[in-house]
Amino acid sequence: MDLQEVSVKDLWQDVYSAGNLHYCFNCSTCISGCPASHGDPPLLVRNLARKLILGLEEELLDDDTPWACVSCSRCEEMCPMNVMPFEMILFIRQWQCRNDETRVPTAIVEIYKRGYTQAVGVNTELRESLGLPRLNTITNNPEQLELFRAMLMKTRIVSENDYMFGG
Amino acid sequence: MAEYAKLSFQKGGLNKELAAFFRGLLENGAVDGVLVPMAQNHKWVRLTLVTSASHTAGVDPFAPVAAVSGAKIASSLTSRPSGRTIAMVLRPCEIRAVVELAKLKQVNLDDVLLIGMDCLGRYENTDFVKFQEQGGTSEAFLENALAGKTSGPDFDIVGACKICEFPTAANADLSLCAIGGGNGAVFIEALTEKGGQTLEKSGMKPSEAPAGRNEAVKKLAAARLEARDKKFAEFRAEVNSFEALADKLAGCVNCYNCRVACPVCYCKECVFITDTFRHTGEQFMMWAEQSGMLKMPTDTMFYHLTRLTHMSLFCVGCGQCTSACPNGLDLMPLFRTCAEKTQARFDYQAGRSLEEEQPMAGFATDELIEVTGQVK
Amino acid sequence: MAEEKPTGTVLVVGAGISGIKAAIELAESGYKVILTDESPQMGGILAKLDYQFPTDHCGMCRMLPLVGREYASQYCMRKSLFHENIEILPFTGIDSVQGNGGNYRVDLRKRARFIDPAICNELGKCIDVCPVEVEDEFNHGLTRRKAVYQAVPHNNPRMLLIDKQACTRCGECLKVCPTGAINLDAQDEVETREVHAVILASGVQLYNTRDFEDARSYAVSPDVVTSLAFERVLSSSGTYQGGAIRRPSDARPAKKIAWIQCMGSRNRRQHRDYCSSICCMFALKEAVLAKQKGGPEVEATIFYMDMRTFGKGFQQYRDKAVEEHGVKLIRCRVQGVMLKPDGSLMMRYHDPETNEFFEKDFDLVVLSTGQIPFEAHRRWADLLKAPLDERGLLATEQPGMVRVAGKPGLFLCGSLTGLTDISEAIISGIAAAGEAAKFLTALGVDTVKKEDIPEPASKARELPLVAVALCRCGEKTGAAGLDYELFRAELTRYPSVGAVQVIDSICKADGEAALLDSLAKTACNRLLIGACQPFIYRRKLKDVARKAGFNSAMVEIFDLFGVARRGMAEPSAADWTLRAAGEIKADIHSLKYKPALQVNTLPINQTALVIGGGIGGMTAALSLADRGVPVHLVEKEGHLGGYLGTRVEHTIDGLAPVALAADLRQKVLAHKHITVHLNCEVEKSLGTLGRFESQLRFKNNGENKYLHHGAMIIATGGREGATTEYGYGTSEKVLTQAELKRGLTDGNVDVSEVENVVMIQCAGSRQKEGRRYCSRICCLGAIGNALEIKEKNPDARVFILYRDVMTYGFYEQYYTKARAAGIIFVNYSPDAKPRVEMAEGRPVVKFTDPVLKEEMELPADLLVLSTGVDPGESNQGLADALNLSLTEDGFLAEADSKWRPIEFQKVGIYLAGTAHSPMPLKNVLLQAEAAAQKAYTYLSGRELPTAAVTSMVKDALCARCRRCVNICPYGARSYNEADKCIDIDAAACQACGLCAVECQNNAAEVRGWGDKQLMAAIDAKLMDRPLASAG
Q: For residue C1012, is it within any domain?
């Protein structure tokens, strides 16, 4: 990638207003324990910050991973540089929508399919080993899931893009 | 570079051929002097420093005797060097002692050409006299010894030689090879570049290598090694306690002959003849009072233990200590069994190499951690 | 009559490394020192460490004075320190500091120990009966202790005390105490002392996992420990027998061990935006030790952000840790530690090398917890009413230096000057002592005067007859039940004992009089005194003995109290009295054969030679000259100033080298005690401490000049590193960091129009070929230049391609500032270096972005290379001329990298600045000050007593084998080629005795430790156990 072609200095300021994102020194704290970093593709908070700092506008616009964030806020709690990574993700989501009206993130497709952004239930074994009850999730309840889908269909963003949701 | 030269001889003519070789060395200016065992007027063979080509007739390097370790002579000749080049004909054990002494700065090898030889053993001095009186010659000794017979009617080679696993010379420039040369031939092998040049200069013609040599040497060394290990096992079984050791050494009279004979024991003044061991009457009385009696002279075992501490790392197993004892104490097995352990502990072998640093002659912080308690 | 001047007295607060070093330095210069410490025992953190980088051994005792070492006890420093000019007050706080420079009144609060150490016989019966158990803070709560305890287990004397908080006042201890030493109602005592100067060496707080919020994510189990606690796990005297590595929760062997770096530091959110500086090496050392101690199956993994191996030898240690010991380094800061149901510790991390996530279980997790400076600084600022600087640190006259601003006579050292490792703590301790000594010199106060007692003749040639004087110290030994009459009778039986006296309290005036009185009557010619704590009273008792006509060499002092204590195990007083008598037979016999010893004096030429006229050299020269020492200052160039002083206007941390050099130059040239020699180098130097002769050769005319001096300081600096990498030399757009700096200063490099600036760090550094080491100053230099570019042209994009950003300590703030200014940092690994191609006259830099793992390329208007610092060209020549050695990197090799960082094996030569290793100016100044102080200690007197006990050569016995030369760890022995004999440098010899052991010829001997004497002592010890067949 030719960095000459990208505008380094302005992008992050357009997107992010929770302070100086440049404090980030790529320490990986935000990603090392991030639950959404298990996903496919993984959410790599650190990489989003990097794209912002390097001004990789197009790449960031196409990036769906911010929508995989589960809002646990651990990155925000632990970031040693106080750059508010979770805020950053919300800022990126807003910016993506601002810049692409037709944008229907895959996350919503996931939600439509599963009832959750993430595949809930990955910890089933661990829960059992700890003696915790099985989660009664919407995924396990087809009736509720259908109801939920019908509700989603009524939203503008889904109904206008219904081709993505299997008609 | 010539690697070998062949000395063929008629029966009874070995020393004559060898004399010709040494004469060549002196005549051609390869060296300024030769230190070589040589027949004396009467019955002895002694190391002799020869500087004139016309005085080489009596050389007898293979004579099975070593009255004084050649290493000690080498030290006298070179510790304050003459500035002249000397060829020294020494037995393998003597060369190994020379290597140790060189590292201790007691021998200066700058102007020395070391000529080793195959050693099939030596007799005690008194036995060598008997051997000669019975008409024994070096040539005959070699022939018999190579056939496996070293003993005479009431004598044999010394114990040290029987268990010596180093019958050939290492760390020499040239070596006189008797093993594996076949009847009527001795070879001279060049072991170093310097040795090769000297061989060329001496006027000897290059020859092929003795065909059976490697095999024969290997066989002899293996037999000696087996004998050695057997001896070690016997000695360890016999001397397995402090008391047994005290018994073994009970005959010692503090004459210190073994110290004088030992080629690597190089101190100018031994601690045992200093004031440290000149005790007061009060001291003797106190010792005696402790156990009710005191053997005199005292400090005999202490003396040997001290020598073991000082010298076992450098012990080359020549057996001169045993030969020197007027009371017939066989000290060699004690030194060799002890040296085997101490030298192995430092992965050191006395006389093996001039480059290897002597153990405990440097300050290593991570050495012997099991003793020092330092973490490794 | 001349007016009596007061004796210069300095209060040193804090008995950690730097405090102890400052105290020893001042005491050695002849001043009185009061050394206090808040904790019950001295030693600071070092008391806890068995092993230190880089030798992985302890070496604290190397801080002790080398020459005239009989003034201090030569003793394991982790156990205790004694110096006759130092008054040690542990468990003592500072309530207030009044007054000002030259006249401080300090209220010292001696905290109640509840056990009087003067009476306590240290047997610890009270400990046995104490029913209260609490966590032992020495072992970081890994073990438990009683309410009655000993703060540092290996301290000697034991100095027990009672933990007031834990004590339930049950009174059990009072019942068993045989000496009545316990008083549960004891109160703190406040004492006002007057001192001329104060050195603060209190150190700073350490991050504690209990007090900080973040720690909760990590310290989830007892198996997560701090690095200092891990040190106790490793220690042979620590929590587990023999220092086996076990996990605290269940004592199972710990095989998988992880370190997490930067705990509590490099953290803006917690307002700790600094690097704790020492933790990287600490973790590497612990990881190596864990591998060594635990065996090959131990896995050691360090999670880090930047591995800051900036110091001398650090990079090599890191390479060795990774390549030879297999320590794994992973650049990832983990979010937390998860405690799994089975008790193991799980961590999820991202491995940047594979770009994958891993979840891995560990047995033990070590948190590399950092130092926390601000609170300590705030506390001192309040107490001293001194200002804090903008960073929240005590303001000093120059940043990071030792003189507190506006408070003459008040100095800082150790961690208060920045976050320091051992060697820097030592250097700042010496520097603070030096500044204090200069201050005292200017005040005109006196040094300690010694009572001049003439040394009586030795009578060594007479038949030995030993007088024994036993101190009956009522409270201690008396109560232990020693039968003095039996003791006397038993000793009198020995043929060589002429008299046995029992005297009450020899340490007091009455006792001294009684001893003098009784000795006046004896015909004895040798004297053995039994007293308590001989290492404290040794010198005083020897003075008494001299007054009584005994030569010092003929007097020995033994620890009667120690003997008495050992006897307590015997069933009856008579039994153990006899045993005690047996114990001292060896002392009697050794004394019998002790030879006459005399203390030699080295005449001292009180002139110094300083080599190198840069800022360091000039600082050192002025420091000495201001104290009246004549100094020769030698500079190879035609002008003073050195590299920095002629080229660099400002450093990032607020120093102004050119202005500083100009100021120093003016002072140097005007100073009546300084002679400057320009255009010349030292060609050869011979001699030893006190009498060196050096040959100067002048470059321009080839003439020689010979100087005589007593000590010398090497401050020859270094060179700008060179490189041929990254297209350097092919385009004017490719330049070095130093060239950029000069260009920015003189305007030759115009950055107003540049779009892209790329800087590449470690050009030719930290790699196997070229400079193996980190040059320490380049990251700061690059950041400084980058900030300057940003200032001049805010639109410029500046990329810094780095391996580890070496902004240790408070320099971290510049790294943060640089990022905040928009400078983009790009990490690269040495396996995938950036590539540079020239296109259209511009360098195009290609690199892989470490985060996105994408190939990037950027045409640069300026490509700036950090080429590091090369060792000075003259180092080799200097090392040859002075018979010193160089490190493999070409810098001068100091005596001991941690404990004697500015000294050489050869006493009397000192080192400052980049000749030692690359370093920032702040460190150069500290080292220069410290080197001057070291030299001054010896140059202040016309002569110097060497120790009586040094090694010697009996020349007639010497076989010249030189084994003693090889083995001497102090370089005190050398072979004199001219005279063909062994020479001994009496100042360097520490009488360790290795030469005597090594010499097979009995030619090497330590005076006063002859064979006969030792044999006699051994004999005496063996008397009770005759051998089966002695003889």
A: no
C960, C1002, C1026: residue with CB nearest B105: C960
Q: Are C194 and C263 members of one domain?
A: no
CATH 1.10.1060 for domain A3-99: yes
Whether residue B370 has pLDDT greater than 80: no
The residues spanned by each domain of chain A are: 3-99, 106-165
| Closest among C35, C808, C810, C38 to C380, alpha carbons compared | C38
Residue C66 and residue C947: Cα distance in Å, rounded? Answer: 9
Distance CA C369, CA C231 (A): 12
Which of these three, C822, C837, C869, is where a domain ends?
C869
Cα of B203 to nearest chain C Cα, Å: 39
Compare CB distances from A9 to C819, C822, C849 and report the shortest one's residue. Answer: C822
Q: What does the alpha-carbon distance between residue A93 and residue A103 come to, in Å, rounded to a whole number?
A: 10
> Do residue A82 and residue C268 have CB atoms under 8 angstroms apart?
yes
By CA distance, what is C270's nearest residue in A? A80
CB contact under 8 A, C214 and A78: yes
Q: Are the CB atoms for C689 and C696 separated by under 8 Å?
A: no
Burial bucket for residue C344 (CB in 10 Å: 0-12, 13-18, 19+): middle
> What is the CA C715 to chain-centroid distance, rounded?
21
Q: Which chain C positions have a beta carbon within 8 Å of B266's beta carbon?
A: 959, 961, 1000-1001
Look at residues C453, C482, C497 and tell me which one is the last residue of a structural domain. Answer: C453
Give the torsion sign (CA, C165, C170, C173, C174).
positive
- Mean pLDDT, chain B, integer: 91
Low-confidence ranges of chain C (pLDDT < 50): 1, 1026-1031
Q: Count Cβ–Cβ pairs < 8 Å, chain B vs chain C.
A: 96
b/e per residue, C800-824, with b = 16+ CB within 10 A?
Answer: bbbbbbbbbbbbbbbbbebbebbbb
Q: Give the model confidence (pLDDT) of B94-127 as tens digits.
A: 999 999 999 999 999 999 999 999 999 999 999 9
Q: What is the CATH number of the domain that holds C740?
A: 3.50.50.60
Task: Select from C335, C825, C859 the Cβ nearest to the Cβ of A74.
Answer: C335
Tell me the pLDDT tens digit for each residue of C458-517: 888 888 999 999 888 765 555 556 788 888 888 888 888 999 998 888 878 888 899 999
C752 and C863 assigned to the same domain: yes
Are residues C350 and A130, on separate chains, in Cβ contact within 8 Å? Answer: no
Give the span between the Cα atoms of B14 and B188, in whole angstroms.
13
Point out the residue among C962, C1000, C1028 whose CB comes nearest to the CB of B105.
Answer: C962
User: C333–A27: do the CB atoms touch at under 8 Å?
Assistant: yes
Q: Compute the distance between CA of residue B375 and CA of residue C292 in angstroms, rounded to an integer.
A: 8
Q: Is there a contact between B361 and C293 if contact means CB atoms under 8 Å apart?
A: no
Consecutive H or E run containing A112: helix A106-114
Domain count along chain C: 7
Q: Chain A contacts of C350, Cβ < 8 Å?
A: 28, 31-32, 37
Structure-token pair, residue C246: 């076990």
**ipTM for the complex?**
0.75
Contacts of C356 in chain A (CB under 8 A): none
Q: What's at C795, amino acid-wise?
A: D
Nearest to A33 among C334, C820, C824 (CB): C334
Residue to substitute from B269, B270, B357, interface C, most C β-carbons within 10 A: B269
Q: Which domain holds residue C393?
A: 1-111+188-204+373-453
- Greatest alpha-carbon span in chain C: 103
CA distance B226 to B220: 10
Same domain for C5 and C90, yes or no, is: yes
Helix (H/G/I), strand (E/B), else coil: A2:
strand
Mean pLDDT of chain C: 88
pLDDT per residue over C49-105, tens digit each? 777 766 667 777 777 776 666 656 666 777 777 888 899 999 999 999 999 888 999
- Looking at the fold, whether C117 and C47 belong to one and the same domain comes out as no
